[in-house]
Write a structure and sequence with these properties.
Elements: H1 5-11, E1 16-18, E2 22-28, E3 33-41, H2 46-54, E4 63-73, H3 75-91, E5 95-99, H4 101-107, H5 118-142
Parallel strand pairs: 3-4, 4-5
Antiparallel strand pairs: 1-2, 2-3
Length: 143
């Protein structure tokens, strides 16, 4: 059963999902849904966190995964990100990672690029949308 972002957020206390040492909160912005994870991600909670953040892959809505407040990031966290990436690709959802130093250190050369902040990630999305519109405009004019 699929739920809307509003339903997921209101279902939990104050819109916060608690996951055994980490908490998750999502905010709908004009350009994307920002899913914020704070705390530690380890073998005990990685599967539960993966299930929680999967809820925010909706339609073609873009997602900014804000992990800037993650203080501990064990190896299961990398698997969590790989699964999230696979799920987003399967749904055609573009996503961006904002990583904390703990996450960046653990990821190394795993292929995940990250933004330095949520505002930078949202600005990059806005720039990409504007570029696509500029590229598409000549095609629309010639039709």
């Amino acid at each position: 059963m699929f739920m809307t972002i509003a339903e997921v957020l209101t279902r939990e206390q104050n819109g916060v999902l608690h996951c055994d040492g980490a908490w998750i909160r999502a905010h709908r912005r004009q350009l994307a849904t920002v899913v914020t994870i704070r705390g530690e991600i380890d073998a005990l909670n990685a599967d539960r966190i993966a299930g929680c953040i999967r809820r925010f892959i909706l339609g073609e809505d873009r997602v900014v995964l804000d992990m800037s407040g993650v203080t501990g990031f064990a190896a299961p966290g990398i698997s969590l990100l790989q699964t999230f990436d696979d799920d987003c690709r399967a749904e055609g959802v573009q996503w961006t990672l904002v990583a904390s130093p703990a996450v960046t250190e653990s990821l190394g050369d795993s292929g995940f690029s990250d933004e330095h902040s949520v505002p930078e990630a949202l600005q990059d999305l806005a720039d990409a949308i504007a570029l696509r519109r500029r590229l598409a405009l000549p095609l629309v004019r010639t039709s």
